[in-house]
Structure prediction request, 296 residues.
Amino acid sequence: MYSVNLSEPVVPRDRIQVTGAQGITLSVQEWGNPNGQPILFAHAYGMSHLAWLAQVTSDLAQEFRLVTFDHRGHGESDKPLTADSYNQRDLFADDIQAIIAQLNLKDLVLVGHSMSGVLVGDYLMKYGDRNVMGVVLIGANNKLGTEMFQTQIGQAFVAPQAQAIFSESLYEQIGGWNFLNRHLTTNPMNKDAQDIILATSILMPMVARRTIALRDENYLSLYQHLNAPILLVHAKDDQIVLPAAPEQLQAVRSDVTYSLYEMGGHSPHWENSERFNHELATFMKTILLRSRDADP
Prediction:
């Protein structure tokens, strides 16, 4: 499992501020090889760009251009306090497009964890996949709203302990986030990693927590008909987003690559980072080779 040491600096190659939808400022970070094929990482609900430390500090950085960012309402990005800043698919689509445009990301691979299975879908629904060479979905739901809660969400997210993240009491919120975050991995993260995860979770405004998950979306058909290849990564023991989510997508699109981890929780890219990083690098090289073979 990836381990964090907060006494050791981890500094991106560049920090960029991007103006997203509604004029909000998005915090974006560049890592790795500036001339490499770009990978844009979209983090989970209540997380931040720091959720990708196990990737941006790995050998992936030698070969690929790695771009992380904080969604609106998360991390170092602006945190508007009205529901209409979180309840529309176009907002998240336009945020991602603003990052892609400002950083001039061409033929990128989109990586989405958990909730970002839907937020990446927001982008693809509006802008298509002409500039996207591949999609990687990690522990990701492809639905929001009633259908998500009925078929894709596990007991860890709906448990009373987890619902404390919506409490008016900060004390109870901390307990709720700690309960949820313990399900990110089957074995405990080290103390510094736990501190990072809790700190970024608490930063998320209550209106964002309550609004994002209440949208109704179903992107199964979108992903089914996407031209870009898809890599699905999930852990069998994920109790936040159930393996039913990638299995539903695999059932309607047989050519997806599905990597199921026998051990692990909701964040296989952290808990089994070496395996995930190898699979991501292999996926990148495969689609790059396919692209070169397709060129006249």
User: Anything to note?
Assistant: The first strand starts at residue 14 and ends at 19. The two ends are 43 Å apart (CA to CA).
